[in-house]
Design a protein that fits this description.
Length: 257
Amino acid sequence: MAKSVAVSVSGKGGVGKTAITSLLLRALVKNGRGSILAVDADPATNLPETLGVKVDRTVGMVANELRSRIAKGDLPPGAAKKDMLEAGVFGAIVEGERFDLLAMGRTEGEGCYCYVNSLLTEILDTISSNYEIVLMDMEAGLEHLSRRTDRDLETLLIVTDPSKMGLNTARRIKELADEVHIKIARALLVGNAFPAEMEDELREYASRINVEYCGTIPYDPEIAKYNIRGIPLLELPDTSQAARKVEEMAVRMGLFT
C-alpha cells in the first residue's frame, strides 16, 4: 500500500476545527475517497458526536489501564507490553462502512510513562499505514505540536476565525512546527466564519506567515442547527454553503480531483 496521506487540522480553541474536520470527512466520503481513518486527538472528544459515532473506549483508556498495571506490578510474567497495548488500541478503533474512527481521549496518572508513550507512537504509526487518508482533529493551541504528536505530515491545515487571537495562534503554530522540525509537505491557512470582505486581508496574512492561502468558509446556520439537534454533519445537504466551500478546499488540497 502507498504511504498514507496525513492531514492535521489545527488552530486556536473555538475556531471550528472539529466542524471543518467533519466537513472534510464528508467531502472525502462523498467522493469515494477511502480507506479513511478519522482521529480525534482532542481530549474533549467532540468529533465522534459531530459524526454520529458512538465511542466506548479511547486510546487514553487503554494506555491508562496498562500504566496502572505496570505501576502495580500486575502483569503476567513475560507479558509483552507492546502486544497488550497494540491489541487494546486496535480494539478501540470504531469500524464503519465509510470510515473508521479512533479517539485518543485523556491520559491520567502521575510518574514517567515514557516507555508506554513511545510504544503508542509506534503503534499509531502502524495503524495509520493501513489507511489511504488519516484525518486528524487536533487539540486546541500548540500542545500537540510541542509534543510532536503530528510527527511528519502531508498537510497541516491551520484554522483561524476573524480575530487577532486566532491569527496570532495560526502564526505561532507555523513557527513552532518549523522549530520542532516537523516535516510538512503543505501548510495551509483557512478562515472559518470569515466575512467575504476580509478575504484579501487573510490572503495577505497567509503570505506573511509563509503558508498557503486555502480560502474562507462563511458562517453557515445549518451547522449550528445540526449541532444543537445532534444531527451528524455528514448529513448536511449539498446546499450547505460551508460544506460546498470545504469540498472545494479538499480539491485544492489534492485530496481528490
